[in-house]
Write a structure and sequence with these properties.
single chain, four-stranded antiparallel β-sheet, TIM Barrel, alpha/beta, 2 domains, Alpha-Beta Plaits
Length: about 350
């Protein structure tokens, strides 16, 4: 249910509504726009009908939320959300956030070297995996807790925000202690226990779309996180599984535009996993910016030939620097900036 308040509604009116609806066991999300304040109510339909909300002081009208995802829906919040990643680093505004770094943390010196280079190119967030979900149980699985310590140390030294994947509900507190953003990979998009646990965390969540997930299923997964208290959710389109074999996945550029229509949450594009080929990363990254993406996540490695994971889709630092310059021109053309 959406409560639209009158322009002259006071803070006392808002507080009164919140107190009354809380007594019914309903959860409220207050969105303050330039001309209107909107209160979104979440809870059982029968309780939403108990009180005639239209008669409350300051209320202009009451409307149902038609989308199955309530908190995620643009019905409940017309303006796009701007999420603080770390300090003055945000996503969802005019500036496009670029996260870059190696697929996996291989060591402190290696990570620091790449971090310094991507920062010099204009990147503000460092992505690197400490826990690596791999198709084969015999492939490198990540450095785990030691890798997290390296990531935190490099983030502190460079000033970059840090992003890494969490795979197990039992590891959420550990990862949140070391990283600024908790990434949920495609394989865990519908790990509902994990979604609930990161919903209790107070760190932004980067939620990647599952390899066979519809947009609705993806948004419902975001709803799980938000329904458990964490409203700082960033969506990431990273390609879905189709019949095509020329690329690792098929990056659904349509999804960027569709999600921007349906949800107020910021959305990113992952051209590295979306293509699986370094030669295609630049083109797809630029397409993502042109389509309206709020951010990009790109794999960069000093020596892709010897990378422990996903070398074939990693850019070298020089290639990344050149791409950042090209992205700046595309961003400017669509009224954004890198």
């Amino acid at each position: 249910m959406i409560i639209v308040l009158k322009p002259e509604a006071t803070e006392e009116n808002v507080t009164h509504i919140l107190e009354k609806t809380a007594a019914l066991g309903l959860r409220a999300n207050v969105s303050r726009g330039v001309a209107r304040t909107i209160i979104g109510l979440i809870g059982p339909e029968d309780k939403l009908q108990v009180v005639p909300l239209e008669v409350f002081p300051g209320v202009e009208k009451v409307m149902p939320v038609l989308a199955p995802y309530k908190l995620v829906s643009r019905e409940i919040r017309k303006e796009g959300s701007v999420i603080t990643v770390k300090g003055d680093i945000t996503i969802g505004g005019k500036k496009i956030l670029v996260m870059a770094g190696p697929c996996a943390i291989e060591g402190y010196d290696m990570l620091l070297s790449i971090a310094r280079k991507v920062k010099a190119a204009g990147c503000t967030a460092l992505r690197a995996g400490a826990f690596k979900p791999r198709t084969s149980p015999y492939d490198f699985q990540g450095l785990g807790a030691e890798g997290l310590k390296m990531l935190a140390a490099v983030g502190q030294e460079t000033g970059l925000a840090t992003v890494t994947e969490v795979m197990d509900p039992r590891d959420v507190e550990l990862v949140a202690r070391h990283a600024d953003v908790l990434q949920l990979g495609a394989r865990n998009m519908q790990n509902f226990s994990l979604l609930k646990e990161v919903g209790k965390a107070r760190k932004p969540v980067l939620l990647k779309r599952g390899i066979s997930a519809t947009i609705k299923e993806w948004l419902m997964s975001a709803e799980y996180v938000m329904a458990n208290g964490n409203h700082d959710v960033i969506l990431c389109e990273r390609g879905i599984r189709t019949f095509e074999t020329e690329t690792r996945n098929t990056l659904d550029i349509n999804a960027v535009a569709v999600v921007k229509l349906k949800s107020h949450l910021p959305v990113m594009v992952d051209p590295s996993h979306g293509t699986g080929r370094c030669a295609l990363v630049g083109s797809v990254a630029k397409a993502g910016v042109a389509a309206g993406a709020d951010g990009l996540i790109i794999e960069v490695h000093d020596n892709p030939e010897e990378a422990w994971s996903d070398g074939e889709q990693s850019l070298r630092p020089g290639q990344f620097e050149a791409l950042m310059q090209e992205l700046a021109r595309v961003a400017q053309a669509v009224g954004r900036e890198i």
